[in-house]
Write a structure and sequence with these properties.
Elements (H helix, E strand, L loop, with lengths): L1 E11 L2 E11 L7 E2 L1 H16 L2 H7 L1 E4 L6
Antiparallel strand pairs: 1-2, 2-3, 2-4
């Protein structure tokens, strides 16, 4: 079993969050997968972004506001 650090991007509405998680790699067919802690972390960040609670999301991830670019 090995763990690899990766960055996951979450997009909700006008916000995006950059989250650092670990992907666990094993020899079984479900590999790679997240730890339960990282899965809950992603869910918490996604919920905070949906509610507009940037303070809570910023504690767990780097949060960005997305703005449209005029064409």
């Amino acid at each position: 079993m090995t763990a690899k650090k990766v960055t996951k991007l979450i997009h909700e509405g006008e916000y995006a969050a950059e989250v650092h998680i670990s992907l666990i790699t094993t020899d079984d067919e479900w590999s790679p997968y997240l730890s339960l802690e990282d899965a809950y972390k992603l869910d918490d960040i996604r919920q905070a972004l949906r509610e507009g609670n940037l303070k809570a999301a910023s504690r767990l991830a780097r949060v960005y506001r997305l703005t449209p670019v005029p064409a």
